[in-house]
């Protein structure tokens, strides 16, 4: 009986997916910041990435996210969610 060795190609692929998914919160934070309208800079200054959560710590965050600003009529969540969906498709499609 002959035992054939096969190369493990699944594990490296899973590791790549895990690495790329782990970097996704930081990329989403950058996208969120990019979509945050700037008047005084307060909103961008008071938005942070805490662990894997984007925290907007200013009283009018919800209004901005609902499209109050003409500079960001879709807010920040909607464009960021779309970005994340596209990134996941890229990661999983490789």
Features:
two-stranded antiparallel ribbon; mainly alpha
Overall mean pLDDT: 92
User: How many strands?
Assistant: 2
Helical amount among residues, as a percent range?
A: 40-55%
Main beta-sheet strand count, sense and barrel state: 2 strands, antiparallel
Principal-axes geometry comes out as: elongated
Radius of gyration: 19 Å
What order do the strands of the largest sheet run in, or round the barrel if closed?
1-2
Strand content: 5-15%
Oligomeric state as shown: single chain
Structural class: mainly alpha
Number of helices: 5
Order of helices and strands: HHHEEHH
The end-to-end span amounts to 37 Å
List unreliable stretches of 5+ residues: none
Model description:
The chain is mainly alpha-helical. The chain is 54% helix and 9% strand. The chain is built from 5 helices and 2 strands; from the N terminus they run αααββαα. It has helices at 10-22, 24-35, 42-45, 61-65, 77-93, and strands at residues 47-50, 53-56. It has a two-stranded antiparallel sheet with strand order 1-2. Strand 1 (47-50) and strand 2 (53-56) form a beta hairpin. Helix 2 packs antiparallel against helix 5. It is elongated and about 75 Å long. It starts with 9 loop residues before the first helix and ends with a helix.
Task: Lay out the secondary structure.
Blueprint lengths: L9 H13 L1 H12 L6 H4 L1 E4 L2 E4 L4 H5 L11 H17 L1
Antiparallel strand pairs: 1-2
């Amino acid at each position: 009986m002959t035992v054939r060795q096969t190369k493990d190609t699944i594990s490296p692929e899973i590791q790549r997916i895990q690495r790329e998914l782990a970097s996704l919160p930081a990329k989403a934070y950058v996208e969120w910041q990019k979509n945050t309208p700037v008047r005084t800079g307060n909103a961008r200054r008071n938005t942070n990435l805490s662990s894997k959560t984007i925290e907007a710590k200013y009283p009018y965050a919800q209004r901005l996210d609902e499209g109050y600003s003409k500079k960001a009529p879709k807010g920040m969540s909607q464009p960021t969610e779309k970005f994340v969906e596209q990134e996941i498709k890229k990661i999983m499609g490789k």
